[in-house]
Amino acid sequence: MIKDRFGRQVDILRISVTQECNLKCPYCHREGEMDKGALMSPEEIAKIVSACARAGIKKVKITGGEPLIRKDIAEIIAQIADIQGIEDISMTTNGVLLSGMARELKIAGLKRINIGCDSYTSSILEKTADNIKPGIVAAKETGLETIKLNMVVLKDVNSDEIFKMIEFSKKYGAILQLIELIETKDSKVFFTEHYYSLKDIEKELASKADTVETRSMHNRRRYHFSGAVVEVVRPNRHDFCANCRTLRVTSDGKIKPCLMRNDNLLDVVCGIREGICDEELEKLILMGIEKREPYVR
Ligand code: SAM
Questions:
Q1: What is d(CA 191, CA 267) in angstroms, rounded to the nearest whole number?
Q2: Which of 126, 207, 233, 296 is the most buried (most CB within 10 A)?
Q3: How confident is residue 292, by pLDDT bands cut at 50, 70 and 90?
Q4: 189 alpha carbon – ligand 1 mean position (Å)
Q5: Which residue from 198, 227, 226, 223 is spatially nearest to 213, judged by alpha carbons?
Q6: Using CA positions, which residue lies closest to atom 9 of ligand 1?
Q7: Residue with CA at minimum distance from ligand 1 atom 1
Q8: CB of 64 sitting under 6 A from ligand 1
């Protein structure tokens, strides 16, 4: 097990495979990516994941942009699935292209999926129940182990739909993940207008819950009641960073120690392109882990 300088276990790699997306969500943090360099190939991604696995990473989350617009996404998953030490591969997707691809992804080695679903019917948000239903059904039919629906909760947009979305998720056997809005550099006005604290909702969920789990990742609470499962992600909570276990890699091959910062990136793919050996690559990964610092302390 590897820990960073702040004693935080680092066992999750969140790897972006593209910055391109087929939707335009008004709140999107784009995984904190600012520059757009050349994309990594499946082989380069696999080399980075292998070095991370040797350093102690066990779980990989694939993100973007929209991962499913990469034509070689199944190949990327298959190469990661072959790496010794990687126990879990999951993906976050907007779900639009999922119905035609779920089977191929599962066969390649995908275990779990997060599908964006911000609203039941909103006209402003594109990730709606209607748009993603076929993707959820296909994910269920292929037997993916866990399906989570990601709902970024926004004041005056979808904050009144939380309980409707809980019912919807329950009906489809999915966990609803309620996510508090994160402020980005380009979204200060949007954040001021639409930030919605999930503190009161958590109190309400706690009062209804049969059981409450606390997950080690970000100290997230998971509420179980009447057949529904709801997880709450509150990046604005004081202890969020203290419980972060994730190292990030940008779509152009840079280690990104924190979603919120771009002043401490470490280019690893350029090393691969220059032909560095496995040991040197692993050293770079360890240097990236060394750069991790809680953004909020
Ligand atoms: N296109 C994919 C998708 O829609 O899931 C993957 C990329 S998207 C950046 C990954 C997740 O980040 C989304 O599901 C959304 O829940 C979350 N997200 C994006 N911007 C956010 C923000 N400003 N605050 C909180 N969560 C955000």
A1: 31
A2: 233
A3: very high
A4: 18
A5: 223
A6: 30
A7: 66
A8: yes
Residues 160-197: tens digit of each pLDDT: 999 999 999 999 999 999 999 999 888 899 999 999 99
Judge if the beta carbon of residue 92 lies within 6 A of ligand 1: yes
Calculate the average pLDDT of the chain: 95
> Is residue 182 lining ligand 1, measured as CB closer than 6 Å?
yes
How is the chain split into domains, by residue range? 12-290
Nearest residue to 53 (alpha-carbon basis) of 91, 112, 10: 10
Q: Are strands 175-180 and 146-153 parallel, antiparallel or unpaired?
A: parallel
pTM: 0.97
For 141, how many CA atoms within 13 A lie in the half-sphere containing its CB?
13
Q: How does pLDDT run across 23-75, given as a tens digit for each residue?
A: 999 999 999 998 889 999 999 999 999 999 999 999 999 999 999 999 999 99
| Mutation choice for ligand 1 from 179, 190, 192, CB with most ligand atoms inside 8 A | 179
pLDDT at position 124 is: 84
CA dist 47 and 283 (Å) reads 13
- Where would I find the beta strands (DSSP E) of the chain? 12-16, 59-63, 88-93, 112-116, 146-153, 175-180, 211-214, 221-225, 228-233, 246-249, 254-256, 266-267
Q: Tell which one of 125, 126, 150 to mutate to probe ligand 1, the residue whose CB is within 8 A of the most ligand atoms.
A: 150
CA of 283 to the centre of ligand 1 (A): 30
Closest residue by Cα to atom 19, ligand 1, is 28
- CATH (one of 3.30.300.30, 3.20.20.70, 3.90.1200.10, 3.40.630.10) for 12-290: 3.20.20.70
